[in-house]
Amino acid sequence: MPRIEELFTTAEAADLAEAQPGAIEKAIEDGVVEVRKAPAPMAGARPRRLLSAEGVYYVAFLKLCDLHFSKAHRQRLWSWFKETPPERLLTAKWRLSPGVDIRPGEVLAAVRDRVTWYVRARDRWIELNPDIKGGTPVVKGTRISVYAIRGRIDHGDTVQDVLEDNPDLPRDAVEAALAYARANPLLGRPGGRPWA
After folding, report:
1. pLDDT over 50 at 39, yes or no
2. CA distance to 28, 54, 117, 150, 183, per residue, from 41 (Å)
3. Which DSSP category does 191 fall into?
C-alpha cells in the first residue's frame, strides 16, 4: 500500500499525466483504476479521492499511446502497472496478445521523472498546517501561500521576480509552490467575478 505522501489528488494526477481531468474520472468510473479515500480538506467538502503513481502512469500511457483498448485490456494494463515495481517500469515488457508487446518505458520516462520530482518537491517544500493561514498550503518555513506565488506568475511576474523579492527562498521552493498550486487549484467562486 502506498504511503499517503505517494498518493495524488485527481487534479494532481491529471496534471502529472498531462491529461484532462476527465481521463482520470473515466478511469475511476470504469472501475479500472483504484482510488483511496482521504478526509475532506474542510468541513462540508467531499472526501478526496487519491490515486497512486501507478494510476498516473496508467492514464498517461493511455493518452500517449493514443490507441483504443477494450475494457479487458485496460484492466490487464492496470494490473501490470500495479504489479511492476517502480524501478522496473521503464524496462518492463508486457505481452498484451500474440504479436503485441507493450514497453511502457518508451513513452513514460518523462512522466516518471515528473512524478518523482513532484513528490520530492511537495514533501520538501509544501506545508499544510491549520495553524498557518488556516491550513492554506504554504512554502515550508514561511507564510507565503502557494497561491500567492501562482498569482504573481499568472499576472506577469517571473520566477526570478519572486526570488528577488524573497531572497531566502530557493528556486526549488518557488517551482514546487507553483507546481502544487497548479495541480491543486483553489475551490469556489473565482475572485473578481460576479455571480451569474
Report:
1. yes
2. 20, 23, 24, 20, 15
3. T
Confidence band, pLDDT 50/70/90 cuts, at residue 75: very high
With 0-12 CB in 10 A as exposed, 13-18 as middle and 19+ as buried, what is 64? middle
Name the pTM for this structure.
0.82
**Cα four-point dihedral sign 106, 75, 27, 36:** negative
Grid cell digits, residue 191: 475572485
Q: What per-residue confidence (pLDDT) applies to 6?
A: 81
Say which residues have a Cβ less than 8 Å from residue 195's Cβ, sequence separation at least 6: 189
Torsion angle, alpha carbons of 59, 60, 61, 67, to 10: 80
Mean pLDDT of the chain: 88
pLDDT of amino acid 194: 47
**Which cell numbers hold the place of 48?**
478526496
Helix (H) or strand (E) holding 174, with range, is helix 171-183
